[in-house]
Specification:
Blueprint (H helix, E strand, L loop, with lengths): L7 H6 L3 E5 L2 E6 L5 H10 L2 E4 L4 E6 L3 H8 L11 E8 L5 E11 L2 E6 L4 H17 L5 E4 L4 E7 L3 H9 L10 E6 L2 E6 L8 E7 L5 H14 L3 E2 L2 H11 L14 H4 L18 H6 L5 E8 L10 E4 L2 E11 L6 E8 L8 E6 L2 E8 L16
Parallel strand pairs: 3-13
Antiparallel strand pairs: 1-2, 3-9, 4-7, 4-8, 5-6, 6-7, 9-12, 10-11, 11-12, 14-17, 14-19, 15-16, 15-18, 16-17, 18-19
Helix pairs in contact: 2-7
Length: about 375
């Protein structure tokens, strides 16, 4: 049965078109709008996304930090209060169970955010390992608060100023920071994380079943009143692609080795960790790693799509994992897995688009001009 987030009624009232995503009925675009409008609202001002469908697991206890450190390549032990880190949960083959964000709210209290489609899988896996640790006398507990919480991502160059104005207080001025503020009399956790390439924050409210919907819609309405534009899955996909961010299930999955993904760099991944982590042996073995994820653009008209073959000298050598037309550069762009021989920017190959071979070249991420767009813009 398809689920709905606590902001479903807000989406309906704003005229959303819905689709199934990760087992949830989610907006793909809104009335009197289109993907390009929503995309540019985030690149040039402020937009908001309902990301409440994602998993939110609280982990508590004296041994919670060590437990989380064992789950990922990243050095979780170096986190301090009010800090978050992006990382991955791997399987024994070095493939991706999921990509996650782990936050230290305070000593002995941590938050793990995972993808919606992986909620049941990650919860079961983490729970099994946690039970094994508790059998050894370790002190830790885990609570799933996904269904009694809301997460609203407010993104764009004006986002943090609007959040500060509504909260009436200072907000974190750096990425991957956390702080509690009060908005409309409700405690809201600000996490300066996001999935667009822009500055912004994910705002999290935790309540009980009887009040979470009302508090969440009040937060949505407060953002609307400040001119923040509702944005949906279509724009979320084009934004993350321009920035070079992976979508689980498209660009990474259980069969994708960490070293193929291009995500094996600090601080996301420590790779060789003295304390060890699940999947480390397979990562360090580097067996059968012959391809790598790259960004590319078509040199002719067309839009690359997931599953299209990459062709070199008439032979299929890889596959497109994501593709779109960039609303900023208006170029057809995408991600693909190619042989190491074609990983450098400027390398040429072709994309088989329904039997027609279209010329393409490898490019670097982000695909937009970072001096004009994104969190590091200078103009």
């Amino acid at each position: 049965m398809t689920k709905r987030t606590v902001l479903y009624k807000a989406h309906v009232s704003y005229g959303a078109d819905f689709t199934d995503f990760g087992g949830y009925e989610m907006p793909v675009r809104y009335k009197d709008s289109n993907i390009r409008d929503e995309h540019l609202a985030v690149r040039e001002g402020a937009g908001m996304f309902d990301v409440s469908h994602m998993g939110r697991y609280w982990v508590y206890g004296a041994d919670a930090k060590e437990y989380l450190d064992m789950l990922v390549p990243r050095d979780v032990m170096s986190l301090t209060d009010g800090r978050a880190g992006y990382s991955f949960m791997l399987n024994e083959k070095g493939g991706f169970r999921d990509d996650v964000i782990i936050s230290q709210l305070k000593e002995e209290e941590y938050l793990v955010v995972c993808n919606a489609g992986n909620r049941d899988k990650i919860w079961a896996w983490m729970s099994d390992l946690l039970a094994q640790w508790k059998e050894k006398g370790k002190q830790l507990e885990m609570v799933d608060k996904s269904d009694i919480s809301c997460m609203l991502a407010v993104q764009g160059p004006k986002a943090m100023g609007i959040i500060a104005d509504i909260a009436g207080s200072e907000v974190p001025d750096k990425r991957f920071r956390l702080a509690w503020v009060t908005i409309n009399g409700v405690d809201v956790l600000i996490s300066t994380t996001g999935y667009t390439g822009e500055n912004g924050a994910e705002l999290i409210i935790v309540a009980d079943e009887s009040t979470i919907e009302g508090k969440s819609i009040d937060l949505w309405d407060a953002m609307l009143a400040k001119g923040v534009k509702p944005c949906a899955l279509g724009a979320r996909d084009t934004l993350r692609l321009e920035a070079g961010y992976c979508l689980y299930g498209n660009d990474i999955d259980e069969e994708t080795h960490l070293l193929e993904s291009g995500l094996d760099f600090r601080p996301f991944a420590v790779i060789d960790k003295e304390r060890g982590y699940i999947g480390q042996e397979a990562v360090l073995a580097k067996e059968d790693v012959t391809r790598v994820r790259v960004g590319f653009r078509l040199l002719v008209k067309g839009i690359p799509r997931h599953g299209m073959e990459i062709v070199v000298e008439g032979q299929p050598v890889g596959v497109v994992t994501s593709g779109t037309q960039s609303p900023v550069t208006k170029e057809p762009i995408g991600m693909a897995y190619v042989p190491f021989s074609h990983k450098e920017p400027g390398s040429k190959f072709q994309v088989d688009m329904r039997g027609k071979l279209k010329d393409a070249e490898v490019i670097s991420f982000p695909t937009y001009d970072p001096t004009k767009y994104g969190g590091s813009r200078t103009s």
